[in-house]
Design the sequence.
């Protein structure tokens, strides 16, 4: 294709065929799967995925890529291409409400976190998501308590999904090469939530407040949010830092302190 990659669309195109095959194998497709690719770009993944499926959807923002992509894919499978911003895309518009969605994408780095949260609004319809992201972001998604990378993103994602980092990819697999390593991660929304949260909005604000001052104890960072009695009822030591509190601890703090 004769397209100059655009930085503002986060365009780092995959060209290493071994890496492309490794990603495609990790997804373990079945013919009847309802797969949506985010940001197909020039079709590096699309062209390998499409022949394995009866049909597939892809959402691409850069309209200059659409005609070439359409032409390239028309002879190899049944692709429905949506020229849209995935952050505004209404997934319920994919008109097969009874089929679980599988989502895949070498994501534009600048929108990866808001996009994952956007998708999680549809989590009951999603079977799984395979994303290629900056390694540093995957490390944060997967981090356990007591690690340097554990933070708000880890808690908020792990509340919704099982997070499985799969493998790391060096900059040389892309054109142009990014400055950092990338990783492939599988996110699988829980069928049964690991914790019960009574007020989602309160939970998310409380987690944000706890990590807003990482170096402080939760007694201080959650002043005005959680009383000493509520810490005790939740079984969380107010003298510890947020990075030592597990998802279960945040859920208990949120349920104890939720507005009545
Ligand atoms: N899948 C291709 C590959 O692996 O070579 C391209 C990956 S490139 C990192 C990201 C792609 O997402 C680009 O094609 C870019 O135009 C597209 N993109 C960027 N922002 C987008 C958005 N908001 N909605 C949909 N697509 C977007």
Sequence:
């Amino acid at each position: 294709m004769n397209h100059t990659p655009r930085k503002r669309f986060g365009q780092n195109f995959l060209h290493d065929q071994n890496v492309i095959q490794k990603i495609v194998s990790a997804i373990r497709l079945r013919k009847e799967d309802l797969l949506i690719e985010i940001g197909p770009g020039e079709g590096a993944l699309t062209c390998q995925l499409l022949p394995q499926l009866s049909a597939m959807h892809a959402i691409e923002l850069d309209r200059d890529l659409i005609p070439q992509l359409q032409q390239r894919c028309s002879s190899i499978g049944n692709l429905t291409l949506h020229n849209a911003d995935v952050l505004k895309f209404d997934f319920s518009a994919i008109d097969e409400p009874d089929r679980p969605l599988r989502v895949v994408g070498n994501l534009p780095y600048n929108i990866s976190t808001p996009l994952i949260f956007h998708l999680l609004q549809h989590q009951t319809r999603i079977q799984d998501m395979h994303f290629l992201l900056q390694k540093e972001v995957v490390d944060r998604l997967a981090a356990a308590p007591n690690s340097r990378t554990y933070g708000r993103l880890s808690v908020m994602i792990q509340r919704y999904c099982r997070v499985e980092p799969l493998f790391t990819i060096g900059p040389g697999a892309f054109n142009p090469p990014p400055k950092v390593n990338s990783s492939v991660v599988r996110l699988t929304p829980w069928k049964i939530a690991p914790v019960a949260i009574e007020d989602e909005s309160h939970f998310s604000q409380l987690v944000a407040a706890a990590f807003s001052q990482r170096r402080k104890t939760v007694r201080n960072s959650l002043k005005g949010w959680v009383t000493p009695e509520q810490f005790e009822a939740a079984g969380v030591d107010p003298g510890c830092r947020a990075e030592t509190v597990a998802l279960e601890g945040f859920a208990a703090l949120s349920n104890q302190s939720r507005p009545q």
